[in-house]
C-alpha cells in the first residue's frame, strides 16, 4: 500500500567543527559563524535520505526541507533539492538571533504547523552543539509522539509507521501513528549523491534575499517571524531560558611532565617507580 | 520543595551507574544549597531499588511503579516527570545523557519551558550577574564542551526552573554513603497521570545486548592511537594491557581506521574514563580525545613527536618509538613483578 505523504525534513547548516580556528567565537561568547566553513549537518543528511526513501516507495510524496539560519543557509536547501527534495523553506529573521534549543524549537514548530506535514524527520543532533534536543522539543511543542535514534523506516501503512531505532547496546522496533517526529541516527543509510537532473533543474534556485530577480519557479521560500506567527517573546534570546555565562577556549593546562626517552634505563626506572607508588602491582 | 531531583534509570532491574553518579554529584550540590536530594524512579517492580537510592543520599524516592512502565517509552515517562516537576518544583533536575535521558529531558524541558544543557562535564553552584546588572545567587553552573570540544561553555538558567542538565556515564564519580539516609517513598498514582494517548507508540521488538567491553570500570587503561599504524600492530597494545591487567582503549582516529571496536573509543564521542593509570600510545592528543581521559590520576604518554599535545597533559612523557618502548615496558614489568 502506498500513501502520498508530506514530509518536512529539519536540517541545519553547521560550522564544520573539525576546522575551528581562533576567530570562531565573538567576544560576547556567541558563535562567529562567518569565520567558519559551513556544511550540511551530517545526521540531517541521513534524515533526508530516509525521507527520500519513503518518497521512492510512495510516489506523490512531497519532501520539504526546513532550516533556520542566516541567508547563506539557503545553500543547504539547494543541496537538498539537488538530491531529490521537492522544496525548502528558510526561516530567517533577526528576531531568531541568539536562540537556544528551546527558542529554536519554538520557531521551527511554528513553521511546521504552517506546513502541516504527516511526518517530520530530523537528524539526531547537530555537530556544533551535539545536544540532540531540538527534535524532541519540536515534537513536544507540536504535541505529537517522537521516535528518536531511528536507523530505518521499515514500513508505512495507512496510519502507522514502523521504525527501527538504534540504542546504546541494541535495537528496538517501534510502531507509531502519524503525525510523528523522527530523529535519525548516524548509523542510518548515508544520503544519496546529487542527481544530475535535479542539479540542472535547481541550479538557479535562490531566495529573494540572494537574488531579488529570481523567478517564481526557482524561488526558495523565506519566512520571518511575521510569516510563522506566534509570540515574539518566545523567539531568539528572550525565548531562551539558557544563557551563556562564560566561554573559554581550550588551553592545555601546563602540568609538570617528566620527559623520558626510550632508553632502557628510563623505561626501567619508570616501571620501578610505578611499582613503588602502587600504581601497578 | 525546591529540592534536587535525579531521574534514575534502570537496566534489567538494576540501577544504572550514571544515575548513581548523578546522585553522588547531586548530594554535594544539595549540601551547598542546603536542600534535599531526591530521586525519581519509574518502572515495573522497581520499589526494592529505593533502598539503594537511600544509600546514595536520596531522602525521598518518587516512585512510579506500573507494569506498563517496564520499558522506557517517551510519552508515559515524560507525562510522569512533567507532572511531578510541576508539583514538586525542584530547583535542579539531573538526567543521564543516555539514549533514554537524551530522549526524555528535552521533551520535559519543552513542556515546562525550562532550560536544559546537554552533556555537562562539570556542575557547580555559583552566582550570576547579567549585562543589565540583574543578580542571581546559587545558580547551577552547567559546564560543557561545545564546538567539537574547542571551547568550554558555562551555561546558566537564571529565570526558569528546574535548571536541567544531562551528564554522560563515567563523567562524575560514584560514591555511596557509609550510612544510608533515612529515606521515604512518595508513591505516584500513575492512573491519575497517564492517559491512553500516552501509549500510542508500541514496542514491537527489543534486542539489547549485554555490555561486553567496559573500559570505563577499569583501573588501568592502555590506549592506542592512529600512530599504532595497523590492526595487527594493535597487538602490542593488547600485550601491554594483558600484563598490566588493564583494558584497551583507543582514540577516535584508531577506531575510524578500523584498528579496534568503537566500544573502546575514549573521548567526547566515545566514553569518558578516569582510571588510576592511563597509558597513551601513539595518540597525538586532540582535545576531543583528551576530554575523555584527562581526569585520569596518572597519565603516561608515548609518542615520537616531542610536540604532540598529549605530552602536555601527561605526568610522564616518553618521547620515543612505541614499537621500541612498549616491548621494553613489558619486559621491565615482568622483571619487576617477579
Can you give a write-up of this model?
The complex is a heterodimer of chains A (281) and B (338). Chain A has a single domain (6-239), classed as HUPs (Rossmann fold, 3-Layer(aba) Sandwich). In chain A, helix 2 (74-83) crosses helix 5 and helix 3 (101-115) crosses helix 4. The termini of chain A are far apart. In chain A, the strands form two sheets. In chain A, strands 9-8-7-10-6-1-4-5-11 form a nine-stranded mixed β-sheet, sandwiched between helices. In chain A, strands 2-3 form a two-stranded antiparallel sheet. Chain A has 281 residues and is of the alpha/beta class. In chain A, strand 7 and strand 8 (160-167) form a beta hairpin. In chain A, 26% of the residues lie in helices and 27% in strands. Chain A is built from seven helices and 13 strands. With 338 residues, chain B is α/β, with parallel strands linked by helices. Chain B folds into two domains: 4-199, HUPs (Rossmann fold, 3-Layer(aba) Sandwich); 215-337, 3-Layer(aba) Sandwich (Rossmann fold), CATH 3.40.50.1220. In chain B, the strands form four sheets. A seven-stranded parallel β-sheet of chain B has the order 7-11-6-1-4-5-12, sandwiched between helices. In chain B, helix 2 (50-54) links the parallel strand 4 (37-43) and strand 5. The mean pLDDT of chain B is 93. The interface between A and B is large, with 76 and 82 residues.
Q: What structural category do the secondary elements of chain B indicate?
A: alpha/beta
| CATH C-level name of the largest domain in chain B | Alpha Beta
Distance between the termini of chain A: 66 Å
| Unreliable parts of chain A | none
CATH level-four homologous superfamily name of the largest domain in chain B: HUPs
Low-confidence stretches of chain B: none
* Total DSSP helices of chain B: 10
Number of domains of chain B: 2
The largest contact between protein chains, plus residue counts on each side, is: A-B, 76 and 82 residues
CATH fold naming of chain A: Rossmann fold
Strand content of chain A: 25-35%
- Strand segment tally of chain A: 13
CA radius of gyration of chain A:
23 Å
Q: What string gives the helices and strands of chain A in order?
A: EEEHEHEHEHEEEEHEHEEH
Number of DSSP helical runs of chain A: 7
The rough form of chain A would be described as globular
Q: How would you name the CATH homologous superfamily of chain A? A: HUPs
Overall SS class of chain A? alpha/beta
Percentage of residues assigned to helices of chain B: 25-40%
- Average pLDDT of chain A works out at 91
Portion in beta strands of chain B: 25-35%
Amino acid at each position: 500500500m502506498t500513501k502520498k505523504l508530506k514530509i518536512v525534513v529539519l536540517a541545519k547548516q553547521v560550522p564544520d567543527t573539525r576546522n575551528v580556528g581562533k576567530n570562531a567565537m565573538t567576544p560576547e561568547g556567541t558563535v562567529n559563524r562567518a569565520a567558519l566553513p559551513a556544511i550540511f549537518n551530517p545526521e540531517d543528511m541521513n534524515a533526508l535520505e530516509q525521507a527520500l526513501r519513503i518518497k521512492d516507495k510512495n510516489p506523490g510524496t512531497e519532501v520539504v526541507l526546513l532550516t533556520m539560519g542566516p541567508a547563506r543557509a539557503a545553500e543547504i536547501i539547494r543541496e537538498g533539492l539537488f538530491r531529490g527534495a521537492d522544496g525548502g523553506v528558510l526561516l530567517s529573521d533577526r528576531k531568531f538571533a541568539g536562540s537556544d534549543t528551546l527558542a529554536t524549537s519554538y520557531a521551527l514548530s511554528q513553521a511546521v504547523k504552517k506546513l502541516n506535514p504527516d511526518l517530520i524527520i530530523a537528524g539526531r543532533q547537530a555537530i556544533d552543539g551535539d545536544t540532540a534536543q531540538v527534535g524532541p522539543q519540536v515534537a513536544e511543542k507540536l504535541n505529537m509522539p517522537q521516535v528518536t535514534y531511528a536507523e530505518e523506516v521499515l514500513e508505512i501503512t495507512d496510519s502507522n509507521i514502523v521504525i527501527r531505532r538504534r540504542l546504546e547496546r541494541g535495537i528496538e522496533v517501534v510502531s507509531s501513528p502519524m503525525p510523528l517526529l523522527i530523529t535519525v541516527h548516524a548509523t542510518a543509510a548515508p544520503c544519496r549523491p546529487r542527481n544530475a537532473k535535479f542539479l540542472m533543474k535547481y541550479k538557479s534556485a535562490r531566495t529573494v534575499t540572494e537574488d531579488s530577480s529570481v523567478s517564481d519557479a526557482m524561488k526558495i521560500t523565506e519566512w520571518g517571524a511575521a510569516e510563522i506567527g506566534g509570540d515574539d517573546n518566545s523567539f531568539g534570546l528572550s525565548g531562551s531560558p539558557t544563557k551563556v555565562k562564560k566561554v573559554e577556549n581550550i588551553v592545555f593546562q601546563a602540568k609538570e611532565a617528566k620527559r623520558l626517552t626510550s632508553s632502557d634505563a628510563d623505561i626501567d626506572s619508570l616501571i620501578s617507580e610505578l611499582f613503588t607508588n602502587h600504581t601497578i602491582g | 520543595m525546591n529540592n534536587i531531583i535525579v531521574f534514575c534509570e534502570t537496566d534489567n532491574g538494576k540501577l544504572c551507574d550514571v544515575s548513581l553518579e548523578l546522585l553522588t554529584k547531586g548530594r554535594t550540590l544539595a549540601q551547598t544549597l542546603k536542600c534535599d536530594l531526591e530521586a525519581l524512579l519509574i518502572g515495573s517492580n522497581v520499589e526494592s531499588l529505593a533502598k539503594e537510592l537511600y544509600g546514595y543520599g536520596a531522602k525521598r524516592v518518587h516512585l512510579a511503579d506500573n507494569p506498563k512502565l517496564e520499558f522506557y517509552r517517551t510519552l508515559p515517562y515524560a507525562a510522569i516527570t512533567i507532572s511531578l516537576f510541576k508539583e514538586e518544583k525542584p530547583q535542579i533536575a539531573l538526567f543521564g545523557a543516555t539514549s533514554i535521558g537524551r530522549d526524555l529531558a528535552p521533551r520535559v524541558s519543552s513542556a515546562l519551558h525550562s532550560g536544559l544543557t546537554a552533556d555537562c562535564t562539570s556542575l557547580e553552584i555559583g552566582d550570576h550577574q547579567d549585562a543589565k546588572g540583574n543578580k542571581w545567587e546559587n545558580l547551577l553552573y552547567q559546564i560543557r564542551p561545545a564546538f567539537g570540544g574547542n571551547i568550554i561553555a558555562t551555561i546558566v538558567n537564571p529565570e526558569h526552573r528546574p535548571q536541567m542538565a544531562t551528564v554522560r556515564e563515567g563523567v562524575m564519580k560514584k560514591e555511596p554513603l557509609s550510612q544510608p539516609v533515612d529515606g521515604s517513598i512518595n508513591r505516584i498514582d500513575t492512573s491519575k497521570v497517564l492517559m491512553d494517548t500516552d501509549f500510542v507508540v508500541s514496542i514491537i521488538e527489543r534486542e539489547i545486548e549485554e555490555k561486553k567491553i567496559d573500559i570505563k570500570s577499569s583501573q588501568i587503561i592502555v590506549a592506542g592511537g592512529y600512530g599504532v599504524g595497523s590492526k595487527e600492530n594493535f597487538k602490542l597494545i593488547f600485550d601491554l594491557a594483558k600484563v598490566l591487567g588493564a583494558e584497551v582503549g583507543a582514540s577516535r582516529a584508531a577506531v575510524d581506521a578500523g584498528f579496534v571496536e568503537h566500544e573502546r573509543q575514549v573521548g567526547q564521542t566515545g566514553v569518558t574514563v578516569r582510571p588510576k593509570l592511563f597509558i597513551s600510545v601513539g595518540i597525538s592528543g586532540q582535545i576531543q580525545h583528551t576530554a575523555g581521559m584527562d581526569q585520569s590520576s596518572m597519565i603516561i604518554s608515548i609518542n615520537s613527536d616531542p610536540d604532540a599535545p598529549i605530552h602536555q597533559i601527561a605526568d610522564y612523557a616518553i618521547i620515543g618509538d612505541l614499537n621500541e618502548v612498549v616491548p621494553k615496558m613489558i619486559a621491565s614489568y615482568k622483571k619487576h613483578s617477579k
